[in-house]
Amino acid sequence: MMLLRDAIASYSAVYVTTAPGLTARFGLPEGYVVTDCNARRPLAVLRCTLQLAPIMLRERPQMVITTGAAPGLLGLVLGKLMGAKTIWIDSVANSERLSMSGKIAGWLADIWLTQWEHLARPRGPHFMGRLL
Amino acid sequence: MILVTTGTQLPFDRLIRAMDDIAAQIDIRVFAQTGPSRYVARHLECQAYLPPQEFEAKAKASSLIVSHAGIGTVLTAMRLGRPIILFPRENGEHRNDHQVATCNALRGRRGVHIARTEDELYDLVAKPLLVPAALVDSEAAIRTFSNNLEHSIARLFGGRS
Fold first, then answer.
1. Which residue of A lies nearest to B72 if distances are taken between CA atoms?
2. SS3 string of B90-132?
3. B75, A93: Cβ pair inside 8 Å?
4. Which of A41, A82, B125, B141 is most buried, by CB atoms within 10 Å?
5. ipTM above 0.95 for this complex
6. Paired residues of A65 in beta bridges
7. Chain A nearest C-alpha distance from B147 (Å)
8. What distance in Å separates the CA atoms of residue B76 and residue B88, rounded to the nearest whole number?
9. Residue pairs between chains A and B whose CB atoms are closer than 8 Å
10. In 3-state terms, what secondary structure has residue A9?
11. What pTM was estimated for this model as a whole?
């Protein structure tokens, strides 16, 4: 997401990350930090959701854009519930198949992207570029 | 040390056999993460599966990585600045030809070398100094992606661009 920040440069953006200090490395203001999680760790998923909810309520985003994985999906779900536009960019590492989060995101995302042409389908996920 | 990896999901005997033949002819230690491959190598140190930290340590200790066309391994090589040779699974060795597609997408990228046959693989491994891969050089791709995304977002918000 850091590498694609130019795409949202004309909007005011708030970043949520699982890696403290990540945004600073790219000269951006410090973002919110939440617990990393995945489907195999339901308690972490719960904790991450409880951390995300107040952030979303405070910021009231009109758009949620994420490169995943599970924490990004949770943000997408919460954003969708609040009526935000949602964008999913599946990680470039998923060249063989979409991630599980990515498949679920297909149901929610207004823009649903893969970074691999051969994974793109007419009804999504779509391909519009790759970070490599 | 040369690190060979097939990924963990599928066997890739053609790669392990080819590297076994090559290891017999060169003077470099070759370590192979073989997954469920069944070919029994005589000139390679083999391990079916390496936990992520051990894989990382092996990759750091290596001077060259030889891999099926797994993008995770390519990213590791780029991050660590190692040269990488991709030897893609062909039709029949995988569900479809996507490893060839991955190779085509990465062809020409600095430090990413592609071999489609055992002979091509030998020629690349035998080269004394392969160019290392790097995470740079992606600026043009990132700019294109970013522009496309910016336009799509503008459309999403009602045609403003």
1. A93
2. CECCECCCHHHHHHHHHCCCCCEEECCCHHHHHHHHHCCCCCC
3. yes
4. B125
5. no
6. A87
7. 6
8. 17
9. 83
10. coil
11. 0.76
- pLDDT over 50 at A116, yes or no: yes
Write the pLDDT tens digit of every residue in A81-102. 999 999 999 998 888 889 999 9
CB within 8 Å: A92 and B70: no
Separation CA A64–CA A72 (nearest Å): 9
- Decide if A92 contacts B71 (C-beta within 8 A): yes
* Residue A62 three-state SS: coil
Residue type present at position A110: D
Among A84, A26, A2, A8, which Cα is nearest to B147's? A8
Which of the two residues, B104 and B38, has the higher pLDDT score?
Answer: B38
Residues in chain B: 161
Residue owning tokens 């951006």: A28
Kindly state the DSSP code that residue B153 receives in the 8-state scheme. H
- A69 preceded by cis ω (within 30°)? yes
- Closest by CA to B84, choosing from B124, B126, B120, B26, is B124
**3-state class (DSSP) for residue A58:** helix
Q: Give B123 to chain A, closest Cα distance, Å.
A: 26
Q: HSE (CB half, 13 Å, CA atoms) of B132?
A: 15
Q: Do A96 and B98 touch (CB under 8 A)?
A: yes
Q: Do B153 and A118 touch (CB under 8 A)?
A: no
Residue type, A79: G
